[in-house]
Amino acid sequence: MITVTEALDQLFALARPTGVEKVPLIEAAGRILARPMSARRTQPPFASSAMDGYAVASAAPGDRLTVIGESAAGHRFDRPVVPGEAVRIFTGAPVPAGAIRVVIQEDVTRQDSTILIGDRLDSGDNIRPAGGDFAEGAQFDAPRKLSASDIALLASMNIARVPVARRPKVALISTGDELVMPGETPGPDQIIASNTFGLHALLSSEGANPRLLPIARDNATSLKHAFSLVDDADLVITIGGASVGDHDLVAPVAEELGMQRAFHKVAMRPGKPLMSGRLSGERGAMMIGLPGNPVSAMVCGHVFVLPVVRVMLGLPPVAAPRLRAPLARELGQNGPREHYMRATLTEEGLTAFDRQDSSLLSVLGQANALLVRPPHDPARAKNEVVDYLPL
Ligand SMILES: Nc1nc2c(c(=O)[nH]1)N[C@H]1C(S)=C(S)[C@@H](COP(=O)(O)OP(=O)(O)OC[C@H]3O[C@@H](n4cnc5c(N)ncnc54)[C@H](O)[C@@H]3O)O[C@H]1N2
Ligand code: MOO
User: Fold this and answer.
1) pTM, full prediction
2) What pLDDT tens digit does each residue of the chain (391 aa) get?
3) Is residue 210 part of a domain?
4) Same-domain pairing of 115 and 241
5) Using alpha carbons only, what angle is made at residue 272 by residues 207 and 192, rounded to the nearest 5 degrees?
6) How many Cβ atoms are within 10 Å of 188's Cβ, its own excluded?
């Protein structure tokens, strides 16, 4: 069995970036910007007022100034202002030449076309300099996942379309005679396919484009039929049938179909029977075979599938980011496999659930962290600091 790090390295070597497409900015939130952008204009393009008030060339308490015109947002006052004069100005409007500050309207008394400066003036000039936010040509780095703030910034740079990574197409195949879809009526020996739905949600949230294929039954013909439907998927994920039982057919069938296997079995818990390789054929999609136990499939989703999707989206090949927190309760010694324990993180620290069987989705649902224990980690006392993956 290989380690989690070795498995990740092999997965990263198999993952191919999907390429780039251009999308309107309005559709770009959450997408991965593929190439750096540069601002197409300076913002603000002119010195502008930060407040509603009067633009002046000089002002001291008690001064009387003559109001000579108005500058509003979108409509500048086109003459210079000189000492003794003031221009009525509003937030966002261009500051006229000669003005050194904007006195806010609360600090003046207006009478017809004259203003009297009050007896206290704050120190700010209330002028936003041209280019104070960014200058034309300013760089916006890539690759990066575009947040709502990024979209606002790109819009103000006058960028209407952006190059983003194409969403990886992922075909999801559940395997097993026991499975029916949610909403169907299961037979007495059947259960509901849950992993496929969990994986679909996980993949969508990371920017992939997942698609559920029909459930493959536990025979080679049905599984081959499912594989025949993967079409132009970039990544094929099977769920279940990965272990050593008589009905675990994914590895032999995939190999019969020409899959070049990179590895099978990883020293982790849950998730041991994980496999990966590349399917044969023109496009040769990457394949990941996940274990069927529901929590195993979801843990492998966080630990392996999401980092692979990120590489396909052009992001760097890095493991799922880990954080550290103290233990709120002691832990016994770990066995030979890296253990991802469902846990809760509260202000007191991390508490692993007592029940860690890989079939228990209800425990996964209550967890907000996967506490990570290295192979053979010794017993740990309360308050010792350990690694975890946030969920
Ligand atoms: N003799 C051994 N038996 C097992 C070993 C082993 O090393 N030696 N490994 C165990 C481990 S660890 C795991 S994990 C499982 C993985 O087995 P498979 O990947 O072959 O999964 P299945 O047998 O098909 O299913 C396991 C379990 O999960 C349920 N399942 C499957 N698919 C779904 C789905 N889409 N939604 C919900 N539940 C699903 C299935 O009904 C089974 O209960 O093997 C151990 N055995
Ligand atoms: O490793 Mo299995 O994935 O523990 O249940």
Assistant:
1) 0.92
2) 999 999 999 999 999 999 999 999 999 999 999 999 999 999 999 999 999 999 999 999 999 999 999 999 999 999 999 999 999 999 999 999 999 999 999 999 999 999 999 998 888 999 999 999 999 999 999 999 999 999 999 999 999 999 999 999 999 999 999 999 999 999 999 999 999 999 999 999 999 999 999 999 999 999 999 999 999 999 999 999 988 788 889 999 999 999 999 999 999 999 999 999 999 877 789 999 999 999 999 999 999 999 999 999 999 999 999 999 999 999 999 999 999 999 999 999 999 999 999 999 999 999 999 999 999 999 999 999 999 999 9
3) yes
4) no
5) 65
6) 4
CA of 244 to the centre of ligand 2 (A): 12
Last residue of a domain, one of 165, 181, 213: 165
Mutate which of 275, 288, 290, 293 for ligand 2? The one with the most ligand atoms within 8 Å of its CB, which is 293
Which ligand is nearest to the Cα of residue 357, counting in written order? 2
- Is 238's C-beta closer than 6 angstroms to any atom of ligand 1? no
Domain-located, residue 95: yes
- Cβ–ligand 1 distance for 162 under 6 Å, the answer no
In a domain, 10, yes or no: yes
Q: Are residues 8 and 75 in the same domain?
A: no
Whether ligand 1 lies within 6 angstroms of the CB of 196 is answered as yes
Q: Whose CA is nearest to atom 4 of ligand 1?
A: 243
Ligand 2 pocket residues where CB is under 6 Å: 269-272, 291, 293, 296, 358
CATH number for the domain that contains residue 119: 2.170.190.11
Kindly report whether the peptide bond that precedes residue 252 is cis, defined as omega within 30 degrees of 0: no
For a mutational test of ligand 2's pocket, the pick from 296, 334, 339, 341, i.e. the residue with the most ligand atoms closer than 8 A to its C-beta, is: 296
CA angle, 146 as apex, 144 and 151 as ends, to 5°?
135
- The total of structural domains in the chain comes to 4
Q: Are residues 143 and 91 in the same domain?
A: no
Question: Is residue 263 located within the same domain as residue 170?
Answer: yes
Q: Which residues, other chains included, contact 227 with Cβ-Cβ below 8 Å and sequence gap of 6+?
A: 173, 236, 253, 254, 257, 279
Longest Cα pair distance anywhere in the chain, in angstroms?
96
Q: Show the domain range for 81.
A: 48-128
Which listed ligand is nearest to 341 at the C-alpha? 2
Query: In the 8-state DSSP scheme, what is residue 74?
Result: T
